[in-house]
Amino acid sequence: MNQEIELKLELPREAVEAFEQSSLIPDPGERAELSAIYFDTPDRLLRRQGYSLRIRRSGAKRVQTVKADSAEGGGGLFARGEWEMPVADDRPVIDTRTPLAAALGDAAESIEPIFHVDVERRTWILEEQSGRAEMVLDKGFIRAGEREAPICEIELELKAGDPSALFALARRIEGVAPIRLGVAAKAERGYRLLDAAPVSFKAEPVDLKPGSDPRQAFRTIVRACVRHYRLNEALLIDHYDPQALHQARVAIRRLRSALTLFKPMLEAQQVVRFQDELRWLAQLMGEARDLDVLVEGVGQGDLHEQIEAVRDRVHADVLEALGSRRVRGLMIDVAEWLTLDAARESDSGSADAFAADRLQHVYQWVVKHGRHMTKLDDEHRHAVRKKAKKLRYASEFFAGLFSETKKGRKRHAHFIDALEALQDKLGALNDRVSRPELLKRHGFDMSKQPDAFGGKGRKKLIAGAAKAHADLADVATFWR
Questions:
Q1: What is the pTM of this model?
Q2: 370-416: per-residue pLDDT in tens?
Q3: The domain containing residue 108 runs over which residues?
Q4: Residues 151 and 261 reside in one and the same domain
């Protein structure tokens, strides 16, 4: 088995010519027409087990490749197990030279083609001070039945030296073309064509194992957040959808929460740097999200049209920001930071011990500061709401460390249920406070606005929040 270390970058098709004519390209390089067939069982068993299987043809040569998913992948830098062998035709060879025989068992007989990838590939070998990398430009299409998706991406694969060489090269590319961090392999994009087109992507479970190192846990969590954001950002750039914006904003908030949770083992200067940038992006998306929700709650009429006009302007601001170098480079910066050892040595022992300590700290804050819910003012209830949200994200991040037993999974589920109930009540209260301010901020005359944005039902919501908080304080924690 070989270990493939690869940085994937997405390139707009309209920028290909500028890239190819830049000084980055030392020579014509190699050109090839590649055609690949991807295989799986009808019930997608290989996909569920974390493998992809393809046979790629270039001229008369055919090579079978098996790749294994890794917790290191998905956040831009892919580090995956890879098994290659020449084959005589387009029929997969399933034997003990790869993990396929064990993964498929008797289902190996039902392997079938599921989608095709056809690309024009250009390849160069480039030298950087810290290493040597292969740079590949792929242009083409993925096809599954009658559906297809375009491919235009740059792959940087480390051939010798340090992974920093990949990011040094990425910076040079960024100077001539508007690249973005790639988080989805061709196989994943092909599988996506087999299902209905997604409107948005929710956060995926974070794969943490008990006894793992806290630094590795941090990298895994942040890479999951980066992937969550980039998948939804790509949808937004293609076509604005309120759900994609909501999930992109959630991803940014989760990433900010991860930086706060792991702050004790991070360089303070880097945390401040990324928090400032992420806060700016979250606020911009938050304004758009608030207007998306607001306009849905207003009946047809003059107010609805006025809010829609404001929302359209804010949407345009969001899309303009997403197209900026500031945003495009942000996730590449995060990926580089993670790869080049963002976290310091920790004296917290295992990730389990670190997670339990951080969860307990945030949980105690929420219990203490929300205890007199009915007497708190709006500002303090909002602070409890924000901290409860961070507790929710932390509980999701660290779930795998405490859910190996049935009892652990049950306690985790009960805790999340109690936390969700509190978030729902506090969120509804926050909407009642923030909506009038939102309207006023955009120049609406609040004296003429309907009472729907006022305080009707406020006491009932506060009482509900108080009960939900008491339930959370009484529920068994899942980490101790």
A1: 0.92
A2: 999 999 999 999 999 999 999 999 999 999 999 889 999 999 999 99
A3: 2-197
A4: no
